[in-house]
Every structure is written in structure tokens, then in C-alpha cells.
């Protein structure tokens, strides 16, 4: 057992999850592969979306994987950082929009 | 940014034997990863054997005006290994009689060989179908004596293949040196001006993309699309095809991988991406590589590792195509670089 929750070397073992549930694991990886194929969105666009979401869900494995994926696709560091900000802005907005609830409640309870 | 070769810096990895040891030790010795021989045995390709010879690749010298961070040749201004006219004469004899349809001149910067123009003039008379010169672009702008290279290439109907790591200045200059991007753009515009790379032109201009770091190239067609769009929109530049080439873990790139603690991850990435269908078409199966001093190799990478062909005919002076075609190709773990993903060769993907 490792002494920390996250080990970078675990990322390349991701496929091993299939060993303990072959059907679900296989279905997941098929789905995953299909999602990131070229479609109405390019694989490049999907890579940037994945990078943004990786930050929002704070997944260190995903951040490593999609930074590398972006480099492989020729995505620039400026594009990557803008994607991270897009994710962060939505996350901040998701908190702040609750401010309206706070304001509503405040008004309701106040004379 | 390095300004000297590993050799001039007297670095440990200038020693090819040391590189081969690294590639055979550690994760490959303790069985954590399979060796390339084990892997191609499983795929039914061992021993790796040549098919019909199609490409004669001649390295006319390791001298270069650039010192690129990833260079597998360890080329640079301090390298003095230059093919002599005598060896060129021996090469011409082979070029006139070979069954290969492609002649591929490389370096270093091949144009820096003092006999380069004479050699191109003579070789072009042999009537080889596809005559490639691998030009690093900046050489065209390096000195007045090279300014007319686009016209010279055109006169001899040379197919120009040039390196361009990215369509942005920052990434290009980081890999290849300050100012390389601007000079390369200017050189591409000059090649376009004489007709190279234009959509319907027979003057072929292809670009080579190498990743600028410890990662593999992604889809060649998608990269080509992005390069074409950016170079056209930003600079009005046209070119024909983009070849995405994987960096092989040898020489300066190996030195970088070890120093940046990326070596093991990179080897894992190469082995994970092993594609059995790429093995059948790796370039050593249709290429002979000739070094500046006339020795024969399965590819330019084996040349840089000092791994001569396993044949009785090991030198251009003993060149014998039939004997060479009956050989086992020499392999080590660097070969994983040519079988990853869609495969990699001097002509781009192979699978």
C-alpha cells in the first residue's frame, strides 16, 4: 500500500479496474474511447473540455493525462490556461449564483 | 538551450555504448517492461527482416548550424564529421545502380557539406524518382552563400522536407534555438515564392513535426490540419504534407528524458502505444542508411548508436543490395519509438 492517496504511477494502471468487473470496465472504456473520437466537436476541442473539467472535479490523474494529451495535439499553454479559467469561472459562478438564494432568504426573513 | 553537442560537452551520453546500456538496463532488465525483441516475437515479427529496398538515406555529415534539444544526431556547429568527395563518389556509384526509388539526403545540415551542391547535381542525373533533401530551413537564411538554395533545389527538382516543431514562435524556439521560428518562416515564404509547397505544384515541400518534450505526437492528419490553418492565416505559407515523427530515446533526447526524470514514463508510453501493425512497415524494412564515412546501417537511429548492419556488406565500398536484403535488422529498445501509435518514420506515420 502506498502512503499517499494519489500515486502518479497509478494512472497507467487505470485499465486494471476491468480485472474486478470485466463487463462494466470494458463498457466504460468503450464509451470513454467513443466520447473522445472526432464528432460534431473535434478531438482537440474535447481535449480542452476534458482539461477544464479535470480541474473542476480536481482529479490529478485527469490533469496529468489531459495536459499531456493537449501537448500531443499541439494545444498551446495559453489555450490550456484559458480552458482552466473557463472551468474555474463556472465553478465560481455556481457558488456565487447561490448568493441570490441568500439574498432572497435574507429579504424574506427581514422586516 | 544547449549551444554545444553532447560530444563537445564530453557528456556521458555522447558514448553510444552507454546509451545502449541504459536502453537495456533498468525497467527492461528487471522485466518491468518487455524488450523490443520480446514484444515483436509476440507479434510474430522476430527476427525483423527487410522487404524490398525503397529508400537510400545518406547522411552527409553531422555539422549543423543549429543545436536542437531533441537531436538524435547530436549535430551542431562543433561536429566535424563530414562526408568526403571520395565517399560521395562511392555513393553515386550505388545511386546509379540501386533499385531504390527514393534518395534521401540528411545531416546535420546537409547543405553545410562543402561538396553538397556537386553531389546533388550528380545524384539528380541518376534519375531517381523521389530525391529528398532534409533542410532545417534556417540554413537558407544563415549566410548569403545559402540564399539561393530554394532556386538550387528547384533546378534539380529536389523534394524539400523541413523541420517545424510548432506553428508558434515560443515552442519552436524552445526546441530549436532563439530566432529559429522567424528564420524558418522567412525560409518557407522564400520556398513558396519559387513554387515549393503550393497546392498544385510539383515542387514538393513537406514539414516534419517532432514533439517538443516528453510526449508522443497525436494524429498526423489533425496536426497537419492545424499547421496548415495557422501557417496560412498567420503567414500566408503553404506546404504539402506534415510528417509527425516520434522522438526516439537516444542521444540528446535520451539525455533530456533522464535529466527531466521523464525516461521511465516515456518508455512506458512507447511500450503502451506499441502497434503490431506498425512493425510490418517500419522504415528499416525498406531503407538503408549510409553514414558520413560510408558505413551502412538499418536506419539513421542505428547509425547514431553505432549499430552497423548485420551483413557481410557493411560499407558503401562493399555495397551489395542482394546481400543487404538478406539480413536481420538490428534492434534495441529505441525501436519502440517507430512502432508507437500510428508508427513513425522519416516519411511520417506507417500504420
What is the rounded Rg of chain B? 19 Å
Highest-level CATH class of chain B:
Alpha Beta
Extract low-pLDDT stretches of chain B.
none
CATH class of one domain in chain A: Mainly Alpha
Largest sheet of chain A: none
The averaged pLDDT of chain A comes out at 95
| Assembly annotation | heterodimer
- Within the CATH hierarchy, at the fold level, what is the topology of one domain in chain A? AhpD-like
- Pattern of helices and strands of chain A: HHHHH
How many helices of chain A? The count is 5
Q: How many helical elements of chain B?
A: 15
CATH fold type of chain B: TIM Barrel
Element order of chain B: H for helix, E for strand: HHEHEHEHHEHHEHEHHHEEHHH
Question: Can you offer a commentary on this structure?
Answer:
The complex is a heterodimer of chains A (111) and B (351). In chain A, helix 2 (43-56) crosses helix 4 (77-96). Chain A has a domain at 41-109: AhpD-like, CATH 1.20.1290. Chain A is an all-alpha fold. Chain A starts with 21 loop residues before the first helix and ends with a helix. Chain A is built from 5 helices and no strands. With 351 residues, chain B is an alpha/beta fold. Chain B has a single domain (12-339), classed as TIM Barrel (Alpha-Beta Barrel). In chain B, 36% of the residues lie in helices and 10% in strands. The longest helix of chain B has 16 residues, at 220-235. The chains are: A mainly alpha (111), B alpha/beta (351).
Summarize the structure.
With 111 residues, chain A is an all-alpha fold. Chain A has helices at residues 22-35, 43-56, 60-72, 77-96, 98-109. Chain A has a domain at 41-109: AhpD-like (Up-down Bundle).
Amino acid at each position: 500500500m502506498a502512503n499517499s492517496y494519489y500515486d502518479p504511477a497509478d494512472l497507467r494502471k487505470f485499465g486494471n479496474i476491468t480485472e474486478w468487473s470485466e463487463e462494466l470496465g470494458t463498457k466504460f472504456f468503450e464509451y470513454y474511447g467513443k466520447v473522445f473520437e472526432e464528432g460534431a466537436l473535434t478531438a482537440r476541442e474535447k481535449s480542452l473540455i476534458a482539461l477544464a473539467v479535470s480541474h473542476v472535479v480536481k482529479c490529478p490523474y485527469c490533469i496529468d493525462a489531459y495536459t499531456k494529451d493537449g501537448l500531443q495535439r499541439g494545444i498551446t499553454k495559453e489555450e490550456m490556461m484559458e480552458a482552466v479559467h473557463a472551468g474555474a469561472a463556472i465553478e465560481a459562478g455556481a457558488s456565487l449564483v447561490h448568493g441570490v438564494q441568500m439574498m432572497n432568504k435574507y429579504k424574506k426573513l427581514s422586516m | 538551450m544547449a549551444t554545444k553537442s553532447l560530444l563537445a560537452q564530453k557528456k556521458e551520453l555522447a558514448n553510444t555504448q552507454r546509451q545502449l546500456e541504459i536502453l537495456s538496463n533498468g525497467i527492461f532488465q528487471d522485466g518491468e517492461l518487455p524488450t523490443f525483441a520480446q514484444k515483436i516475437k509476440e507479434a510474430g515479427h522476430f527476427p525483423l527482416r527487410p522487404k524490398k529496398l525503397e529508400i537510400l538515406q545518406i547522411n552527409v555529415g553531422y555539422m549543423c548550424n543549429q543545436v536542437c534539444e531533441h537531436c538524435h544526431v547530436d549535430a551542431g556547429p562543433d561536429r566535424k564529421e563530414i562526408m568526403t568527395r571520395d565517399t560521395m563518389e562511392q555513393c553515386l556509384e550505388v545511386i546509379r545502380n540501386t533499385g531504390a526509388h527514393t534518395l534521401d539526403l540528411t545531416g546535420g545540415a546537409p547543405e553545410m557539406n562543402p561538396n553538397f551542391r556537386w553531389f546533388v547535381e550528380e545524384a539528380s542525373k541518376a534519375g531517381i524518382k523521389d530525391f529528398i533533401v532534409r533542410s532545417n530551413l534556417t540554413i537558407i537564411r544563415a549566410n548569403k552563400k545559402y540564399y539561393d538554395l530554394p532556386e538550387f533545389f528547384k533546378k534539380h527538382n529536389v523534394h524539400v522536407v523541413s523541420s517545424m516543431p510548432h506553428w508558434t514562435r515560443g515552442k519552436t524556439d524552445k526546441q530549436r534555438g532563439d530566432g529559429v521560428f522567424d528564420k524558418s518562416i522567412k525560409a518557407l515564404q522564400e520556398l513558396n515564392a519559387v513554387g515549393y509547397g503550393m497546392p498544385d505544384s510539383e515542387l514538393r515541400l513537406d514539414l516534419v513535426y517532432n514533439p517538443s518534450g516528453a510526449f508522443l505526437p497525436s494524429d498526423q492528419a489533425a496536426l497537419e490540419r492545424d499547421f496548415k490553418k495557422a501557417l496560412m492565416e498567420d503567414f500566408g505559407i503553404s506546404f504539402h504534407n506534415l510528417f509527425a515523427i516520434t522522438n526516439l530515446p537516444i542521444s540528446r533526447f535520451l539525455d533530456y528524458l533522464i535529466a527531466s526524470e521523464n525516461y521511465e514514463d516515456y518508455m512506458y508510453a512507447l511500450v503502451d502505444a506499441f502497434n503490431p501493425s506498425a512493425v510490418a512497415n517500419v522504415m528499416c524494412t525498406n531503407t538503408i542508411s549510409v553514414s558520413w564515412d560510408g558505413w551502412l546501417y538499418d536506419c539513421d537511429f542505428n547509425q547514431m548508436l553505432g549499430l552497423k548492419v548485420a551483413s557481410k556488406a557493411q560499407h558503401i565500398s562493399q555495397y551489395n543490395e542482394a546481400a543487404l536484403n538478406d539480413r536481420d535488422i538490428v534492434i534495441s529498445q529505441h525501436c519502440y519509438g517507430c512502432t508507437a501509435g500510428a508508427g513513425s518514420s522519416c516519411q511520417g506515420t506507417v500504420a
